[in-house]
Amino acid sequence: MHQPDPTPAPRPLRADAARNRAKLLAAATEVFGERGLDAPLEEIARRAGVSIGTLYNHFPTREAFWDAIFPERMATLERIIDSALAAPDPWDGFVGYLEGLFALQAEDHGLNDALAQRFRAAGEVEQACHRGFRRAELIIQRARDSGQLRPDFEPEDLVTLIWAMSQVIRESMTTAPDTWRRCLAFFLDGLRAGAAHPIAVPPLTPGQLSEVMRAR
């Protein structure tokens, strides 16, 4: 019986095309980092020294850029999560995770937009965000089980905290880039179990969270 031919491997890029792709990725990393994920693609092409047509030949959609750029940044976040889960003290791990996460966002407007889901992610970025959120639940559970994190803090509350902090980071990044640290300190004091008071409003349900994300 005749077996279908295997899918041929993609042909390697010509040297000039490979150079253009590398220049585009470097320029996109800079531009998205400085201006966020809605930065003009024309600016990326200009910094790379190529035409907008060449840009679209390599990256036909904005999402194609994101998928090429952000895995490395998400790998850094994975290392932050690993360190938080390995911390002997669960509260220190929880605090270290938040500080590391927001420091990463403060370094990169584009990553800040991606993690706050200001734009709909797709492909590898979306999958990495989901993996990170699932592992963050373990960090939260450890801190709650230790009795140091207030027991009513849910993973959905982490999402709303990320939204809030991402806006602080976005608005103050060029003027006072460490403002988020002061804001986080206030949040953390309110999250300590010893300072907790009952909250009348429940956290978002998973369905509500999905609806909010669709609206965003």
SSE topology:
Blueprint: H1 15-35, H2 41-48, H3 52-58, H4 62-86, H5 90-107, H6 109-115, H7 123-145, H8 155-172, H9 179-191, H10 206-215
Helix pairs in contact: 1-2, 4-5, 4-7, 5-6, 5-7, 5-9, 6-8, 8-9
Main β-sheet: number of strands, strand sense, barrel status? none
Oligomer designation: single chain
Topology as a string of helices (H) and strands (E): HHHHHHHHHH
User: What general form does the structure show?
Assistant: elongated
Structure, explained:
The chain is elongated and about 60 Å long. Helix 1 crosses helix 2 and helix 6 (109-115) runs antiparallel to helix 8. It has helices at 15-35, 41-48, 52-58, 62-86, 90-107, 109-115, 123-145, 155-172, 179-191, 206-215. With 216 residues, it is mainly α.
Short description:
The chain has helices at 15-35, 41-48, 52-58, 62-86, 90-107, 109-115, 123-145, 155-172, 179-191, 206-215. With 216 residues, it is mostly helical. Helix 5 packs across helix 6.
